[in-house]
């Protein structure tokens, strides 16, 4: 097995010679979604499967920076069963916290089980369309991540910017076919880029090929 | 003018510069999560009656003198100014989430699961029947060829002997082998399992008719229980079905043809799941599309009555009569 070293661009993420990504396992010996566990001396790493995680695909394709670090508070919209949330939880560590939102009760059940192992996840059953319905459960955050496949995903993202500190970063995973299936994906991408530029500063964007088709990841910064 | 905000731990009152004036610990955060006014909030509002209060959050009822705001600036400052004891905040929020999950059960969940179970039972019965037919053909191929329906085939070979079957079906000569007892017993055991699956499928269909009648009586009056539950299953819930336009209901279940039409300029589909309805099946070929459109329009009315006005369960029959008369 190739030796695992730190990834110099993204603190908290590790890599090996074959360009696979890893994070340090917070709960030794336990798998979250049947990934590979690798031991290197006393430290255990979990393989980050980039075909199952939009954030992993963006990092593998070289997005400028990851936007959050150890100890941060994160708002994660569209957490689903917690595959990407578990890696974010590894990076953020015991001093950080993730508010993991999802609208479906059956997937939030898996999040609750994940939160029992790792003490830094707070699962919330709420609709991201309506930030005022969960304003009493969350606090101000250092990073906003969204992976929701709905027609109005950009509107949801901009509505939830209210929870970000000024000068903080956010990531939006865009699924072009959900926004409008009849238009070409490059057209939808341009439209969304214009819409985002009006309100926030777009730092970087990357296509998620070959892991996903017609998906883009935007890295933005809140300047107001 | 004062600002007010409640987190799951306590409720805060701020002045115009967003410094905390009063803070009260909340005893019942689950009540807060449901959108009701808690005792502590009502007490703070009553103590400041002569001032205008702006509240950050969502409530089901209004109180005189209290306004709600959507202003991002206000929400930002109010969140910054409220202190947070993180450990307690987390454990209370997780408790609220667990309670919410346990209360999100609805009868529609079982409708969707049951219709999917019936589809899977049908597939399993077909798949295993093919296997039994192949095995039995070595023993009595003429019997297997004459009984083309899976249900009757399985029932007959379990209950009757080879010679009885030959007499009933008027077979004189046979090219079947004389298979030893243990081998033919193994085949008949598998046929027994299929028979039990068929009985289970019939039970599930009867159970499905009962529960769809409770949830959507008018919809089951127009189409039968199977089509009604398939429509609910594809839409996800009765609420989503009630907010669809009629054109979507007409083509629910024909998504592949629909997207080919939207993206690649193919011909649009005329009907989806509602193709199985007798009115559409028995219509002449040139009228099938029109019948599907009329049926989808009436189905939408019935679904809306079911979702919004549950007391009315006669409109389904009236709509069906209208459709059959105009035919």
Structure description:
By secondary structure, chain A is of the alpha/beta class. The mean pLDDT of chain A is 92. In chain A, the strands form 2 sheets. Chain A has a 7-stranded mixed sheet, sandwiched between helices. Chain A has helices at 54-60, 83-92, 105-117, 153-159, 176-179, 185-199, and strands at 5-6, 14-15, 21-24, 37-40, 43-48, 73-77, 97-102, 121-125, 141-146, 164-175, 201-207, 215-221. In chain A, 25% of the residues lie in helices and 29% in strands. The termini of chain A are far apart. With 327 residues, chain B is an alpha/beta fold. Chain B has helices at 29-33, 39-47, 72-81, 86-102, 107-136, 141-146, 150-159, 162-168, 181-215, 217-222, 225-235, 238-242, 246-251, 255-264, 278-281, 288-308, 315-326, and strands at residues 2-6, 10-14, 20-25, 53-56, 66-68. Chain B has a 5-stranded mixed sheet with strand order 3-2-1-4-5, sandwiched between helices. In chain B, helix 5 (107-136) crosses helix 11 (225-235), helix 7 (150-159) crosses helix 9 (181-215) and helix 9 (181-215) crosses helix 11 (225-235). The model of chain B has no long low-confidence stretch (mean pLDDT 90). At the A-B interface, helix 3 and strand 8 of A face helix 3, helix 4 and helix 14 of B.
